[in-house]
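Section 3.1: Structural characterization of target chains.
Under the original work plan, the team committed to producing a structural model for every single-chain target entering the pipeline before any wet-lab resources were allocated. The record below documents one such target. The sequence was received from the expression subgroup and is listed exactly as submitted; it comprises 117 residues.
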Amino acid sequence: VQLQASGGGLVQPGGSLRLSCAASGSTFSINALGWYRQAPGKQRELVAAISIGGSTNYADSVKGRFTISRDNAKNTVYLQMNSLKTEDTAVYYCNAALTIWRPGNSWGQGTLVTVSS
C-alpha cells in the first residue's frame, strides 16, 4: 500500500486546515485509515483513525476540534482540523491498518502542520 498525504502548511492559532491522504496499491487489504503526528522531541501519537465502516477513534486532545472522514470509492482519508492550537504543530502521517486501535506498517511521507502567530 502506498499513501500520499497533502494539505499541511502554516496557520494561525484558531485557524483551520484540511489534510488528505490517498491510498493506492493493495487497497483491498485496508480496513482502517488514520492520522498520526509527531512533534519535535516527542513520540508519534494517534490523532484519529476511521474504519471502512465508519467507526472512529480520536485522541482526547483533538476531540471536538478535528474530524476524520473517508471516501471509500477514492481510497482517500481526510482530516479536517479546526480551532488549531500551537500544540498541534507536528508532522502528520497517514497510516493504513487492520484496526482503528493501532497503526499498521504502511505510512505516508508526512506533511508538516505549523500553528503559529
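The radius of gyration is 13 Å.
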